[in-house]
Amino acid sequence: MADKKILALIDELEKNKTLSDNDFLFLLSQLKHADEETENYLYTKADTVRRKTYGIDVYLRGLIEFTNHCKNDCYYCGIRRSNTNVSRYRLTKDEILDCCKTGYEIGYRTFVLQGGEDAYYTDEKVCDLITAIKKQFSDCALTLSIGEKSYESYKKYYDAGADRYLLRHETADPEHYRRLHPEELSGEFRKNCLYQLKEIGYQVGCGIMVGSPGQTDLHILKDLRFMQELQPHMIGIGPFIPSAGTPMHDQPAGTLEDTLHLLSILRLMFPQVLLPATTALGTIHPTGRELGIKAGANVVMPNLSPTGVRDKYLLYDGKICTGDKAEECRHCMEGRMKRNGYQVVVSRGDYPETR
Ligand code: 5AD
Ligand code: FES
């Protein structure tokens, strides 16, 4: 039998979009051994909230992983600079434009340029890319996911035409941040980047890995408080998955359930936020992305990178879709959504205020 107290907290979260610290911690701890009735109550409530803003629409983002060179050495990430087993690549401008062209033809209206922090891509090169993409695909939104930069660089990209920026904060707790990253990286710097991006005018996305090594409910609470302060337009969360060639290769993965619970909590807290059901979620469970959508997510980000490089952009082990072509992923995704009562749409899929 579902615990009435938990159901009441879920109702309160929907109504007030927040809870006290103690109630959040209680909810998070109880959800870990929740029965099916409680879980379904949470998922259905979150799905109802997403339907109020977005109906059954699911937005597509075409992900172009354009470089796997990275100067950073995050302990969890498969393309960290110390991982000498990675065969490094960079896509050329023409290859990137080709990806966009293919993507455009099959209905993508948002492109996400994601890469490691690669010094080869100077601001000049990045701006040149942005200008070229926006010129050729002027009805598309362009999202950057290329890490920590200076205010001036972010401003240049924005002025060149970039619309959105994804930069997961990874964890809002300084000690937990230290456990996941080497000395030279700082959680404070990263959070500050997000505020700068917002100030410049980007639609911004922050986020975390669920079940990253050392993560506690208290850390998640701090993440929720940080998100309430930042008020992001997008929140990217997916399970931590161990990656060979990293110091965290033998750590346990985050779970499907913890990720789904958190997706629903985020949907209730941020009714209009753009919330992807991530590839990592699809990697730990065959229908993880569909379950994510049913738990309140409204975005999917299929891969648009050329098949020749897909198996080189491995942030974690077992990543799905590395052998599939862009068209295959696009149609696969359409079917997956349809079978569950949702529809992928051909649209930029902006945050409601900015539409
Ligand atoms: N497992 C899951 N997600 C990961 N990321 C990086 N490494 C892993 C991993 N091992 C996520 C980080 C990063 C995003 C691009 O991918 O949160 O911000
Ligand atoms: Fe890539 Fe299904 S989304 S094959």
Keywords:
355 residues, alpha/beta, 6-stranded parallel beta sheet, 3-stranded parallel beta sheet, binds 5'-deoxyadenosine, binds FE2/S2 (inorganic) cluster
Q: If you had to describe this structure to a student in words, what would you say it looks like?
A:
The protein has helices at about 5-15, 20-30, 35-55, 95-105, 125-135, 150-160, 175-180, 185-200, 215-230, 255-270, 280-285, 290-295, 305-310, 325-340, and strands at about 55-60, 60-65, 110-115, 140-145, 165, 205-210, 235-240, 300, 345. The protein has about 350 residues and is an alpha/beta fold. The N and C termini lie far apart (about 45 Å). It has a six-stranded parallel sheet with strand order 2-3-4-5-6-7. It has a three-stranded parallel sheet with strand order 8-1-9, with helices on one face. About 45% of the residues lie in helices and about 10% in strands. Strand 3 (about 110-115), helix 5 (about 125-135) and strand 4 form a beta-alpha-beta unit. The mean pLDDT is about 95. The structure holds 5'-deoxyadenosine and FE2/S2 (inorganic) cluster (FES). FE2/S2 (inorganic) cluster (FES) binds near residues 302, 324, 328 and 329.
Quick structural gist:
The protein has 355 residues and is of the alpha/beta class. It contains 14 helices and nine strands. 45% of the residues lie in helices and 12% in strands.
